[in-house]
Specification:
Structural class: mainly alpha
Radius of gyration: 18 Å
Helix content: 40-55%
Order of helices and strands: HHHH
Number of domains: 2
Length: 112
C-alpha cells in the first residue's frame, strides 16, 4: 500500500508535525486502540462505566461524518485497502474487548 495518497492532513494525535503512527515503532503493536481511549467522546462515555444509547448514537455520528469526509478522497485501490483495514480493525477491537472482559471476570469453578 502506498504511504502517500496525495493528501497531507494534520491530526490531533500528531506530535507537532508528521503523521500519527498506527503501529508502535519498536513492537509493531497497533496504537489505534490507545488513541481511541484518549478521544474525549470515548472518555466521557466511559466515565460512568456504562454506555448509554445516546452515547453510542453520538459515536456513530462522529464515525459516519469521518467516513463521509475520507471516502471520497480515496482512489479505488486505496479504498479497497482502507475498507479491508477498517474491517480488520473492527474485528481486532471486538476480540480485544472480549479478551479484556473475559480476563477481568472472577474465576469460578463449576459445581454441578
Amino acid at each position: 500500500m502506498s504511504k502517500d495518497h496525495g493528501h497531507s492532513h494534520s491530526h490531533s494525535h500528531s506530535q507537532g508535525h508528521g503523521r500519527t503512527h498506527w503501529l508502535d515503532e519498536s513492537t509493531d503493536a497497533p496504537l489505534i486502540h490507545d488513541y481511541a481511549r484518549r478521544l474525549s467522546g470515548f472518555m466521557e462515555a466511559m466515565a460512568d462505566g456504562k454506555i448509554e444509547t445516546q452515547e453510542l448514537k453520538d459515536q456513530e455520528a462522529r464515525l459516519v461524518a469521518l467516513m463521509k469526509k475520507v471516502e471520497p478522497e480515496l482512489n479505488d485501490h486505496l479504498h479497497e485497502d482502507v475498507t479491508h483495514l477498517l474491517c480488520e480493525l473492527t474485528a481486532y477491537n471486538i476480540m480485544h474487548t472480549l479478551h479484556e472482559l473475559l480476563a477481568a471476570r472472577p474465576k469460578t469453578k463449576f459445581r454441578g
